[in-house]
Amino acid sequence: MRLRVWFHPSMALPxxxxxxxxxxxxxxxxxxxxxxxxxxxLVSQVTMAANDPHDLEITVLWNTKDHKKALNPxxxxxxxxxxxxxxxxYGDVKPVKVQPKGKPxxxxxxxxxxxxxxxxxxxxxxxxxxxxxxxxxxxxxxxxFGEISIDDALLQQNKMTMAERVVVMDNGx
Length: 173
Known about the structure:
two-stranded parallel sheet; Ubiquitin-like (UB roll)
């Protein structure tokens, strides 16, 4: 069965859909929601090809011969349409947000967050890392909660030979 889609004019599609692409060849036993998905896919494909990607989310589909009756998405297509009929669609047209390309793995900077309860060994581990990993550049942001910097004093005394600068953020900043 061949059906033609009609897009409600208030939807403002970003590109016009060529007439030859408005025709769908469908199985009559197909469900109405599947026809909705095919129309949504058509909009996605045409807008992507025009380098203006948009998605359509159809909320209502109807036979244009009976424009006052929205169709149940679970009904079969052949219970509402005959060969050559036109179906109307209305829904939301939204631009697709294109994700920016991420950095390649080789350009990423590894980050380790060291947390734990009081006395769990955070400062001991940090001292070990600073002592054993001297060939690597390591930045430490210490987030002290309290008026007196305890961990800063507990770090081994030769920390300034391993670091250019130590910054302590106090009061839980």
